[in-house]
Amino acid sequence: MGSVSALEILKSRVADQQARGLTRRLVSVVPSCGRFVSVRGRRCLLMASNDYLGLAAHPRLAQASLEAALACGAGSGASRLISGTLEAHLELERAIARFKHTPAALFFPTGYMTNLGVVSTLAAEGDLIVSDQLNHASLIDACRLSHAEVQVYPHGDVARAEELLSQGPAHGMRLLVSDGVFSMDGDLAPLPALLAAARRQDALLVIDDAHATGVWGATGRGTMEHFGLEPGPEVVMLGTFSKALGGLGGFAAGAPEVIEALVHGARSLLYSTAPPPAQAAVALAALELVDAEPWRRERLHTLSALLRRRLAEAGLVVACESGPIVPMLTGSAQAALELAEGLWQRGVFAPAVRPPTVPEGASRIRLTVTAAHEEQDIEDAAQALILAAREAGL
Fold first, then answer.
1. What are the pLDDT digits (tens) for 297-307?
2. Mind listing the pLDDT tens digit for each residue in 11-52?
3. Judging by beta carbons within 10 Å of its beta carbon (0-12, 13-18, 19+), is residue 75 exposed, middle or buried?
């Protein structure tokens, strides 16, 4: 009996995805940011970007990138532990620590690599990780890589999370891991209760603030500031520069002991070439702009509230009450595809989000608002979604 070729197996797997309405395509979007983009030959209002503060096209970020590249070159040439640590990295890490109100911080090439490195370093075989059911894929992968015991609690169920933590090893590490803002639903973690649970159980609380940094809190410091909390030594704050801060890279901020452990053990940091100086310069400029231009954050929340108000007036229900992530659930993947197509036909780009990004039966359109939008853009997007939803029978 002959074996099936590897390529035939791959074709079969893709065909199965297609049969379930889960076909994926890399769609060219030009330009990469801003209010309007060209998608499949049609000029569309962009309602699918994580550039929440509209900083990706900010001239100060572009200038910072250019100046750093001209002064220091295009690359760093080595990993951080060899000869790749530049003064630009150290300056940025000092700025991150000040920004997040922590004693120390560490800069990673991407947010995904941050999560992989941090969680898989802080927890090891014999330790316990307690993780929210809807955590980002990077946190899920990090838990798997750690070789620790992993227990998953129902989304936002702090009582269950604490119960699981209490069953952890008496002499091992206990990690409580959660997104600060959940990327597909837009809701905030119950951070005060999670922090209290972590303290009672002598656990480290690891919060991924990728979708909160720059957006939430009076000065954009994230979910800790939003809830009026100060990060103590039991809190490890993670984040990224690739969303509201308009660039690329990730960071961990926390106690010196945590950062020292990461320098010794975070494989995604140790075995990657260090980020180029331009990347660090852009990140530093973005942190400065969060303070210098608070109107961006205020505008973002005003426009987000306007979109929700217009959808509610039309009887459409979204899955989150506030913030720039505005998800409208469709249930089936096919319904999400039809709604996305209806939006595109009306000049709005907001792709369907389907499994495995979200659970089965929870497909959706995930609209996102940015500070670069105008009020009329929001009115147009709302009207397009209302008409497309009616056309799709939603």
1. 999 999 999 99
2. 899 888 888 878 788 888 887 778 999 988 889 999 999 999
3. middle
The reported pTM is: 0.93
Residue 32 region, left (φ>0) first, then alpha (ψ -120 to 50), else beta? alpha
Q: How many Å apart are CA 259 and CA 303, to the nearest integer?
A: 37
- Which 8-state DSSP code applies to residue 328? E
Distance, CA of 339 to CA of 38 (rounded, Å): 19
Residues 359 and 254 in one domain: no
Tokens of 204: 């480290």
Instruction: Verify that 279 and 247 share a domain, yes or no.
Output: yes
**Which CA distances in Å does 8 have to 13, 24, 26, 74?**
9, 19, 22, 41
Whether 225 and 364 share a structural domain? no
Contact 222, 213 (CB under 8 A): yes
Which residues are part of the catalytic machinery? 183, 211, 243
- Choose the final residue of a domain: 292, 308, 341: 292
Strands 104-108 and 149-153: unpaired
Q: What is the pLDDT of residues 217-264, one digit of tens each?
A: 999 999 999 999 988 999 999 999 999 999 999 999 999 999 999 999
Q: Are 239 and 210 in contact (CB under 8 A)?
A: yes
Residue corresponding to tokens 């560490």? 106
Which token pair is 300?
A: 């973002």
d(CA 233, CA 254): 7
Helices 277-292 and 59-72, packing angle to 10 deg: 150
Is pLDDT of 1 > 70? no
**What is the token pair recorded at 376?**
């009329």
Measure the CA–CA gap between 330 and 336, rounded to whole angstroms.
Answer: 6
